[in-house]
Amino acid sequence: LLLTYEPAKRLARMRVQIEANMVGVRMLFEILDHPIELKEAPDAVDLPAGPGLIRLEQVGFSYRNGPKVLKDMDLSFEPGKVTALVGPSGAGKSTILNLIMRLYDPESGRVTIDGHDISKVTFKSLRRRISYVGQDPFLFAGTIRHNIAIGNEEASESEIVEAAKAASAHGFIMSLPNGYDTDVGENGRNLSGGQKQRITVARAFLRNSEILILDEATSSLDSESEAGIRKAIERLAHGRTTITIAHRLSTVAGADQIVVIEDGQVVEQGPPAELLRNDGAYRRLYTYQLLPDAGPLESLARAAGE
Ligand code: ATP
Known about the structure:
It comes from Aquibium carbonis. Helices cover about 40% and strands about 20% of the residues.
């Protein structure tokens, strides 16, 4: 038992390390001028404004010397629509997001936004088109105002307040003694998880980009704040090309389009109701893997095998 257990544990630890690094890079995506590993093409042009149609065209990808993670993938994300990526752990969902944010370049094929190959555009113009709201809300040392406006330094006070209102953050901010001037502490340690999340949602409202990338939390906040955040995120997604890695039934059921990824390939796609009627991969995930929107009691019952 020890023999099999030890390496598995070591692997799990490695995986946590990888994840932590990626979250770091994605948070920085909003403020960095360029991804860490890539260079901008010398003749790069600005990505022109457009509706935000994203395409993966025959995309093949593996991480450094690793196995193929995406295999000749063709996939479209329609402007103004919410697409939920679902599939087993390690299937390649996060990798798709990484390539769209151009944290890596594909080995073969290309990723386009409104028909433009993203490896040929300036990082700054690409970054401006995309907002990322992740599982681990990241805040920088400084005030709440600064954290909402980050990457958007020319924002006015009223724009910041509007964004906070849209994110259902204005209320709690005003209840703090220093309001928008409150110091969030190191990585937001003076705030609750839900408050931090609201601030990152406000940041995304202020950026107002056509493309929104969401990595849904697996761990739940307290259910009251979670319902509020979910509504705010729904408002945020409205009218944008939204891609979400979904872990919850409600998110998946509310999406316009579901894409099931298994082993680096698209195995099924379509509107949720249609996929439920098929006796396929989505139906199996739906039944066995997605998390219900349960309160603590239901979760406990579920964990205990009901
Ligand atoms: P999960 O639901 O667990 O997040 P996923 O579907 O998002 O899984 P990916 O994170 O895209 O899957 O991972 C696909 C494969 O690539 C996995 O085998 C994973 O271990 C590997 N991988 C992911 N990120 C990296 C990285 N930064 N460096 C090396 N390998 C990676």
